[in-house]
């Protein structure tokens, strides 16, 4: 196939086949058609300008006069306020067909300052001459921060136009949309002026698997093969518009990609090579936005580290550091929690990148804090394992962990549970992983129990899960079973304390699925089936509680897949096929993307949005046809 099918830079042509409509297309069109002010403020290369171009065409088709001005075209370095506002009005005049009237008005009103002159021109010329709704897009709005003069008055003037609607009904025909890479709170920097607080935010989401389906047309192979390649591409990109188009194009141009492993090879070369962060435009933007931000770099990178370690941090629109991460495009919000946006960013901006970009003072502080903590723990005599080119030292033994302050001990444990594990897993060091997992379990045993929190107990369950996973990978199925059963016991105790806590219920379901995996590997299909049914029963109860909860619905899909696998292994091929269709949520989508798509969509860092209600409805029909007692957990 030809990579020209995909476009990886600039605004997509209006007739581009690779343009993917999203919910934002409808939101923007409907908002402006209704006369509401709005803004699309997001990171670079997520489709803002293409969204604007398509909205402009649709609005013109329903009779709205539209002008779209890219502010970078007005000049940046040498303009005076007079020149800049005059250039903006000239652009509007050209697109509205009012060049001469607007030019005459500008020259006649020289007694007014540039901004009032622009605002009066909109009211007295544009709205008087165009007797229909008028919409103005101001793109690349962040460029105003690079001008040689302050532009707070521009956004204050836009707000004034909005507020004057109640006194001047003609202004109701004028709508503005701001587009760029900036936070609304940064538009007005003078503390004496009220912050910019009008308009509706139009949110740009990443492509869902269903939305991205047209992109398979440019990939090699049969439709089914192309669907499987696309599923793997989305596995890496999470649906990020630029990264998805970029990886699709690279796969199409490679000529040798026939399976998901080929996609992995291309992705590795494109985004994870030694010089990728310096050469790949999107990675350069993300890195530059973070490292050149005015925010405290040490605090910013520490916040990102916590998000990367899955610390379950909640989104906070008032947190300026979260705003910087959001505009860099490196994080996303799911169910109110912050996550690294996709697997490409997770791997490209890893622990080594964080450490390499910390200010020198912060690095020294961290090293000193680590040395003090090590001395308190009596770790000076412990063996130190050099891993990953000697970049990380890990204190392997601790004789007096109980003497530590709880915060220090749990910080070390979280490091072992998440960050260190993420370092060792890709390089296949199961021996070190086993040591990490065992030591984490040991640390939990030595922590004081008098003040143990539910979160501590949850992490103790994670430690046993990690140990079970390593033992399972090593082929020690009996050892894995013991570890997974310990994790289950912890989660059942938590659930007994708070039976309505959904996270504890979900943890129990996950434990049963892990136990089912081990029993299946041991050849105990009946035991595996029983465990999977318990997991399915819990997943169904949670999915009914919140049909739009992505994690719970994903669990339901996984449970159906696992049951289908066991039934097929037992020779019941009809049930297995049925279960796998239900797990995918839509059998037509599964056929289009290939048999592995439902599993790929269920990976934690993706954001699938299948039709869950259809899945549950199909699941009920499937269980009725196949004799499964839904929700009972009965293994018979």
TrEMBL record:
Domain of life according to the entry: Bacteria
Entry annotated with the keyword Membrane: yes
Family matches, as Gene3D superfamilies: P-loop containing nucleotide triphosphate hydrolases, Tetratricopeptide repeat domain
Keywords: Membrane, Transmembrane, Transmembrane helix
Classification via InterPro entries: P-loop_NTPase, TPR-like_helical_dom_sf
Transmembrane region(s): 320-340, 374-396
The protein's name: WD repeat-containing protein
